[in-house]
Write a structure and sequence with these properties.
The complex is a heterotrimer of chains A (about 290), B (about 325) and C (about 280).
Chain A lengths: L3 H33 L17 H8 L1 H33 L5 H9 L6 H12 L6 H9 L6 H4 L1 H26 L3 H9 L4 H28 L4 H6 L11 H11 L3 H31 L1
Helix pairs in contact in A: 1-13, 2-13, 3-8, 3-10, 5-8, 8-10, 10-13, 12-13
Chain B lengths: L3 E10 L2 E11 L4 E5 L6 H9 L6 E6 L2 E2 L10 E4 L11 H11 L4 H15 L14 H13 L5 E5 L7 H18 L2 E6 L2 H7 L2 E6 L2 E6 L1 H6 L4 H6 L6 E4 L10 E4 L4 E4 L5 E10 L3 E8 L4 E7 L9 E6 L5 E3 L5 E2 L3
Parallel strand pairs in B: 3-8, 3-9, 6-7, 7-8
Antiparallel strand pairs in B: 1-2, 1-4, 4-5, 9-10, 11-12, 12-18, 13-17, 14-15, 14-17, 15-16, 18-19
Chain C lengths: L6 H28 L4 H4 L14 H9 L2 H32 L5 H12 L7 H10 L6 H25 L3 H9 L4 H30 L3 H4 L8 H6 L9 H21 L1 H8 L6
Helix pairs in contact in C: 1-12, 3-12, 4-7, 4-9, 5-7, 7-9, 7-13, 8-9
Classes of the chains: A mainly alpha (about 290), B alpha+beta (about 325), C mainly alpha (about 280).
Chain lengths: ~290, ~325, ~280
């Protein structure tokens, strides 16, 4: 439904958002690309001369990069695993008839709405602190040495914190998907003699596959950029044990003032994220059909 | 005022041509129905007349003035949508007042016009309700009321009765026809239901795949369809078509005969066959008779028909009721 | 998943549901409770759940001695400001895409969403330098701009889905009734779409309030919202758990409440159509 008049008006209405987003994306990205080819360090004032791919070489061969890369993979897959398994479980549980379902929902969803810095600090200080934290008290109570979370298992600790934050998201999306499952399918399966486990495997899980895929892709996009939790708990340490790519680039750019190197890292991060985004776009595109 | 002229009007969406060049003269004050199967272009043409769609080429004249480029608000037409398109957040009163407020007339005038429309359409008791609280038929009337107050040159109806249940549809048909008689304003009415077309129209335009097959009064179309398409579209149940072999000079490849024009005899007739499914409607009966060459004829007869499934019957029809069609589907003159 | 009405299974499920959700909620509960304890009590080796001397001293301390309220206010301005600014830009775009669909609409929408998937570190340096050069570092305006930009795709997406639920014929009817574009949007579209607009606003306030990358990097003492200010409580000197809890409680309770009301919006805005 359109006439030439209304169509040109429509273009006009789109203009601001398109231009702004274009500027927001293209201009800085081009600058990053440009800087990545320069020898540019704010601590060593010089000519900022063009050095081609040298920054990339340094960045990619730096052992810190390798470690951060694997940390990123571990971080993302760890959180995904916990939130998906937990999310499916919670979704099934919350789908049942239980008393006080609304209150249960409030409690389960709450972590997602807590700002990351608060989450990290609360976990770090009040729960995980090896002297005064609750976990330490609990360990003492059962007669075990308390774990020094951030010194001994820094990455795992961060995985725990981030999983806690994202579990509600996965649960909510999967719960919404479960509730859209046609009950009659399950009833037909009952009549066919299927037990709860087969019903789950052959009916519920396939129905959830679309939602699960969405959760995986959306979480991945956000999890690649985990930052605040690391900043506030371990600052990436000890060493690079809990540094992910995002944090690595941050330290190089704003703490070591290596504009060239940090930019190269930034471009690498963009490329990695793009690979995931391509998959996500395909899924969204399919959803837009419907 | 109220005459609309379409000259060589076409419409294409991207490269797809959906309306071939159409010429049509809509006479001031007439009730003309655009009828045809889904996708034939009748709604698109209506929306082009309204100004909601661009015209790819050709001109649309309203009251003699070229309105092809005029925006919808300025064409002096009013439209009743299939889904009524009422403003859900406004009361009935404000729905009807909406177009009037755009015209910048005094509040008194507006009140008067609303009261008038409400009286004509029996809306007085729900002027202060919102559309969500009304039934389908009531919403329909509000949509019409909103159109009436604008005192347009012509009313455009886009399948307004499709969303109503069957009995309500019959009532609304009568109401709309009454309205036309009392307002004497041009009405262009789109429907896919040929019963609506036949009962309401002064003239009918039968659309098929972007062209107008025929324009004429209901009886003209019933008695003298120009081709097989119109013959099959008008009249319910559908006309029977029998393929015949073309012989010599006679280009007829198909003949058509309406169920109501077939006579039944148990002794002799033009076709013989066995009775199949029988549909008893009380007022009339429809027999599906299987005749030679695997053809089936639908025959209409009295309500108290006593034939049964499997009975052998003979069917005939008067010569002047049989239509002949050539290979292109065009009706050949009889005598 | 069998629909089982017997009370016994209901009891079992209820037990597990409350148990697990209680564990999940526990850190938040603990924070809220600790905020009312004394510091000594907060680090006590035998912690108690409810049996302690409740006190408001932590709240008084946080509010009195630190510029807490200023940073709270920063969060409000930045979240609300960026959401309203975003709406002003997103509503026309969503109107255009929902009601004047062309072949390119879908691609455009996907492109917009893809800008949200850009890792912030990819533009960290230029944004930082541009902000520095234009004097936008540590300003509320600067952060409002950033928040608007990163949430714009989600706002356009959400408004698009809400607008699509409105039959286009209503807008066409208004056009036939003589409405110009301003009339159409203000008198017809916005009133009908108000719930959807409110939902979009709500979700974006929440997302902006909790944003923890740019708000940490681009601000310092002046414009820091609560996300950044709380981070400054992380220095290892002194174990002020109770005060940390009070500061945290004040930072998260408003959003917890808002979040409770925005579950549906969350699904709509962040699942990109994968579930209905």
């Amino acid at each position: 439904m359109a006439t030439t008049n209304s169509r040109s008006l429509a273009q006009l209405m789109l203009f601001p958002s398109v231009i702004l987003l274009l500027a927001w994306m293209i201009v800085p990205l081009c600058m990053t690309l440009y800087f990545s080819f320069l020898d540019y360090n704010l601590l060593t004032p010089g000519n900022n001369e063009f050095i081609g791919f040298v920054n990339y070489e340094f960045f990619l061969t730096d052992p810190a990069f390798l470690e951060s890369f694997f940390n990123t993979l571990l971080l993302v897959s760890g959180v995904l695993l916990i939130t998906l398994v937990g999310g499916i479980g919670l979704a099934i549980l919350l789908d049942q008839a239980i008393w006080g379902r609304n209150y249960v929902r409030i409690m389960v969803l709450a972590p997602f709405f807590v700002m990351p810095t608060v989450s990290a600090l609360v976990w770090k200080n009040m729960l995980m602190n090896p002297v005064n934290g609750l976990f330490a008290h609990f360990a003492a109570w059962i007669g075990v040495t308390p774990v020094d979370f951030f010194a001994q298992i820094p990455l795992l600790s961060i995985i725990i914190i981030v999983s806690w934050q994202w579990l509600p998201f996965a649960a909510l999306i999967l719960l919404t998907a479960i509730q859209s499952l046609d009950r009659e399918q399950l009833e037909a399966a009952d009549l066919d003699g299927a037990g709860p486990f087969s019903k789950f495997l052959y009916i519920v899980l396939p129905h959830l596959s679309r939602a699960i895929t969405a959760v995986i892709l959306i979480e991945t996009i956000f999890l690649l950029s985990i930052f605040a939790e690391i900043l506030v708990t371990t600052s990436g340490g000890p060493g690079y044990a809990s540094t992910n790519i995002t944090y690595l680039i941050y330290t190089q750019s704003l703490l070591q003032f290596d504009v060239g190197g940090g930019s190269a890292g930034g471009i690498v991060a963009v490329i990695l994220a793009n690979i995931v985004a391509i998959f996500l776009m395909r899924i969204i595109g399919k959803n837009l059909e419907g | 005022m109220g005459s609309i002229t379409l000259k060589q009007v076409t419409k294409s969406f991207d490269k797809v041509n959906v309306i071939k060049p159409i010429d049509l003269e809509i006479i001031d004050g007439e009730f003309i129905v655009f009828v045809g199967p889904s996708g034939c272009g009748k709604s698109t043409l209506l929306r082009m007349i309204a100004g909601l769609e661009d015209t790819t080429s050709g001109t649309i004249e309203i009251d003699g003035k070229d309105a092809t480029e005029t925006p919808p608000a300025k064409r002096g037409l009013a439209m009743v949508f299939q889904s009524y398109a009422l403003y859900p957040h406004m009361t009935v009163r404000n729905n009807i007042a909406f177009p009037l407020k755009r015209e910048k007339i005094s509040a008194d005038e507006i009140e008067k016009k609303i009261a008038n429309a409400a009286k004509i359409l029996n809306l007085d008791s729900y002027l202060d309700r919102k559309p969500g609280q009304l039934s389908g038929g009531q919403r329909q009337r509000v949509a019409i009321g909103r159109a009436i107050v604008r005192q347009p040159s012509a009313f455009l109806f886009d399948e307004p009765l499709s969303n109503l249940d069957a009995s309500l549809r019959v009532n609304m048909r009568l109401e709309i026809s009454e309205l036309h008689k009392s307002l004497a304003t041009t009405m262009v009415y789109v429907t896919h239901d040929q019963v609506e077309a036949m009962t309401m129209a002064d003239r009918i335009a039968v659309f098929n795949a972007g062209i107008i097959e025929q324009v004429g009064t209901p009886l003209e179309l019933y008695n003298n369809p120009v081709n097989q398409f119109v013959a099959g579209f008008i009249g319910s149940p559908k006309m029977n078509f029998i393929n015949v072999d073309s012989t010599g000079n006679d280009p007829t490849v198909c003949i058509g005969i309406r169920p109501e024009h077939i006579e039944i005899s148990t002794e002799k007739g033009m076709w013989s066959g066995k009775v199949g499914v029988i549909e008893h409607l009380g007022s009339e009966t429809f027999l599906h008779v299987h005749i030679e060459n695997n053809e089936t004829l639908t025959v209409r007869t009295d309500g108290n028909c006593e034939l049964k499934y499997g009975d052998k019957v003979y069917l005939s029809a008067a010569d002047n009721k049989i239509l002949h069609f050539d290979a292109a589907g065009v009706t050949l003159n009889n005598d | 998943m069998a629909i089982n009405n017997s009370n016994k299974s209901k009891l079992i499920y209820t037990f597990f549901a409350w148990g697990i959700s209680g564990l999940i909620f526990f850190p938040i509960l603990w924070t809220l409770l600790t905020s009312f304890k004394t510091e000594a009590e907060a680090i006590s080796a035998s912690p108690s759940l409810f049996m302690f001397d409740w006190t408001l001293v932590n709240y008084k301390d946080v509010l009195a001695r630190s510029p807490y309220f200023d940073h709270f206010w920063n969060s409000v301005i930045i979240s609300l400001g960026s959401s309203i600014l975003g709406l002003l830009i997103a509503i026309p775009a969503a109107w255009s895409m929902a009601f004047m669909q062309t072949k390119r609409t879908k691609n455009l929408l996907m492109w917009m969403l893809s800008t949200k998937m850009l890792p912030p570190v990819g533009v960290l340096i230029p944004i930082y330098m541009l902000f520095r050069d234009f004097g936008l570092l540590d300003t509320k305006i600067g952060l409002v701009i950033v928040m608007t930009m990163i949430n714009l795709p989600i706002m356009v997406w959400m408004l698009y889905t809400y607008f699509r639920e409105i039959p286009g014929e209503i807008l066409e009817a208004s056009r036939m009734d003589g409405a110009n574009i301003v009339d159409e949007i203000f008198h017809v579209l916005l009133p009908i779409a108000l719930p959807g607009i409110a939902s979009t606003l709500l979700l974006n306030v929440i997302l902006a309030w909790n944003e923890a990358f740019w708000s940490l990097i681009l601000t310092a003492a002046n414009a820091a919202p609560l996300t950044a200010f709380i981070a400054s409580y992380s220095s290892p000197e002194g174990l002020f758990y109770a005060k940390l809890s009070a500061a945290s409680a004040m930072a998260i309770v408003p959003i917890l409440i808002l979040g409770w009301f925005s579950q549906k919006q969350l699904v709509r805005g962040l699942s990109f159509g994968a579930v209905k």
